[in-house]
Amino acid sequence: MKKRLVVQGRLSDAQLAELRDLFEVAVLPKTTALDAPENRALLAEAHGIIGSGLAITPQLLDAARNLNVIATISVGYDNIPVDELTKRGIMLCNTPDVLTETTADTGFALIMTTARRVVELAEWVKADKWQASIGPALFGSDVHGKTLGMVGFGRIGQAVARRGALGFGMQVLYSNASPKPALEKELGAQRRELNELLAEADFVCVTVPLTAETEHLISAQELALMKPSGIFINIARGKVVDESALIHALETSVIQAAGLDVFEQEPLRAASPLTKMPNVVALPHIGSATHETRDAMAQRAVDNMRLALQGERPISLVNEETYQ
User: Fold this and answer.
1) What does the longest C-alpha to C-alpha distance in the chain come to?
2) Could you report how far apart the first and last alpha carbons of the chain are, in Å?
3) Which sequence positions are flagged as catalytic?
4) Cα 223 from Cα 242, distance rounded (Å)
5) Residues 6+ positions from 185 with CB-CB distance below 8 Å
6) Cα dihedral 246→250→255→256 (10° resolution)
7) In this structure, are residues 287 and 102 in contact, taking their beta carbons and an 8 Å threshold?
8) CA dist., res. 43 & res. 192, Å (int)
9) Rounded distance between C-alpha atoms, residue 149 and residue 281, angstroms
10) Contacts of 56 (CB under 8 A, 6+ apart)
11) Distance from chain centroid for Cα 102
């Protein structure tokens, strides 16, 4: 008898067909809660769950008594109780690597748009305010030759740093990571304590994962260490930053500007002061949102699920101890 899957997320017709060749597949609408009462029967029979933005709770796991594998179409899994899955022997698979370069593109796009005030000035032109050559009040800041501080130096942080060092001649500093001698040689990067990095960098870009240790890693105290001309970029998770402290720092010119793809509460509501500030570029969490990358992420999740339910090791397994 075929094993059974519950799918909640964007898979292509070809990807669904690949899964249906091997498994019985039930597809839930994205708007339907995974643990809604009408889904309990499906969950009770499911050997695998695949999707994005999955809300996994102990209660859902109690209902899914046959569950072997969860394949999330994301790198992050801070909404999934990994310890609980491990205790129950349930594999958790994610999708690192395939979105690294695309997310780094987003990070560097935020660096460029905030420094050169691209969004603000594009709106200024659309409002028919361009009546003469602009003056110093609308000038931006250079990116080339400046100092880029990476808070977190994993795959995505390294990819942003390469763009800065090799493409824009930036001096790269990094913190919140183990020493990276090979990258120090390749990029001329230098390791700093966080407080030192914040004080030295012209651009501070956050790429750390969200954990108990990194929640509100950047608060009022850290922002106060930045240069008044400093620009803050967050492509990690919203809760890594104390958002109220960031808003205050922007309102009071503690820092110059911010480029943000993530927020403490998403979607960001129009009532947020961040949506009214000309010195803020706010994006709707688009880090990996290209056709090519989202398709590659979905395919990695499909591959992870296929391998795991066929008794093979998944490509990207978070809790290694569950693989027998």
Assistant:
1) 73
2) 22
3) 237, 266, 285
4) 10
5) none
6) 140
7) yes
8) 48
9) 19
10) 34, 49, 70, 79, 80, 81, 85
11) 11
Spatial neighbors of 123 by CB under 8 A, at least 6 apart, are none
Residue 235: C-alpha distances to residues 76, 103, 297 (Å): 12, 8, 18
3-state SS string for the chain: CCCEEEEECCCCHHHHHHHHHHCEEEECCCCCCCCCHHHHHHHHHCCEEEECCCCCCHHHHHHCCCCCEEEECCCCCCCCCHHHHHHHCCEEECCCCCCHHHHHHHHHHHHHHHHCCHHHHHHHHHCCCCCCCCCHHHCCCCCCCCEEEEECCCHHHHHHHHHHHHHHCCEEEEECCCCCHHHHHHHCCEECCHHHHHHHCCEEEECCCCCCCCCCCECHHHHCCCCCCCEEEECCCHHHECHHHHHHHHHCCCCCEEEECCCCCCCCCCCCHHHHCCCEEECCCCCCCCHHHHHHHHHHHHHHHHHHHCCCCCCCECCHHHCC
Residue 24 in tokens: 């019985």
Say if CB 172 and CB 200 are below 8 A apart: no
Burial (CB < 10 A; 0-12, 13-18, 19+), residue 13, is exposed
Asked if residue 189 lies in contact with residue 163, where contact means CB atoms within 8 angstroms, the answer is: no
Alpha carbons 114 and 117: distance in angstroms, whole number: 5
The pTM of the full predicted model, rounded to 2 decimals, is 0.93
Q: What is the pLDDT of residue 79?
A: 86
pLDDT tens-digit series, residues 161-178? 999 999 999 999 999 999
Tokens at residue 81, please? 């109780």
The answer to whether 45 and 67 are in contact (CB under 8 A) is: no
Average pLDDT per consecutive 10 residues, the chain (324 residues; last block may be shorter): 93 97 93 87 96 90 96 93 96 96 98 98 97 96 98 98 98 97 97 98 98 96 98 98 98 98 97 97 97 98 98 97 88
Record the tokens describing residue 212, joined without a space: 């108990």
